[in-house]
Specification:
The longest helix is centred in the middle third of the chain and has 15 residues. It contains seven helices and five strands, in the order E-H-E-H-H-E-H-H-E-E-H-H. Helix 1 links the parallel strand 1 and strand 2. The chain has a five-stranded parallel β-sheet with strand order 2-1-3-4-5, with helices on both faces. By secondary structure, it is an alpha/beta fold.
Length: 149
């Protein structure tokens, strides 16, 4: 099962949930988004950190709303970048998705992004090509040893 973490800000929730539903429809792909998968009573921050560590992919939805945002979105992105920096450079983990024309956070500049505008379907197809590939990426067990808990 390929686990995919979706990171977004509330103002971009409609697109995030659409991406979640699309990924959920693919056999052997298990997307995770707080709105659907975070259970009542869970320590939400601990659960999010654990889920990022266990994911094969981290999709960061970027917009004018999110690139300036501080807080949980930034903490998620920081953890994903920590994982990415320790991975083999030929492996895909962090997938930046621009929802509109916006500048990328400095630390994401070396990572190729995909645009969901002006044609969201074209961008979605590119994301699906990555997460739907035969499993060839660094697994979660190897990655978890790099994360400071």
């Amino acid at each position: 099962m390929t686990k995919v973490f979706i990171s977004y800000v509330r103002k971009d929730q409609v697109v995030a949930l659409e991406l979640y539903k699309t990924l959920k429809s693919i056999p052997k792909v298990k997307p995770w988004i707080d709105e659907e998968d975070l259970l009542p009573g869970e320590d939400w921050f601990r659960t999010i950190k654990k889920t990022i560590r266990e994911s094969e992919f981290f999709i960061s939805l970027l917009s004018k709303n999110s690139v300036e945002k501080k807080g949980v979105f930034r903490a998620e992105l920081k953890q994903a970048l920590d994982i990415y920096r320790k991975m083999r450079k030929d492996k895909v983990f962090l997938i930046p998705v621009r929802l509109e024309k916006c500048s990328l956070p400095f630390k994401l500049k070396p990572i190729h992004y995909v645009d969901f505008f002006p044609k969201k379907d074209e961008g979605m197809k590119k994301v699906l090509r990555v997460v739907n590939r035969p499993y060839e990426y660094l697994g979660r067990i190897e990655r978890t040893k790099y994360i400071i808990k």
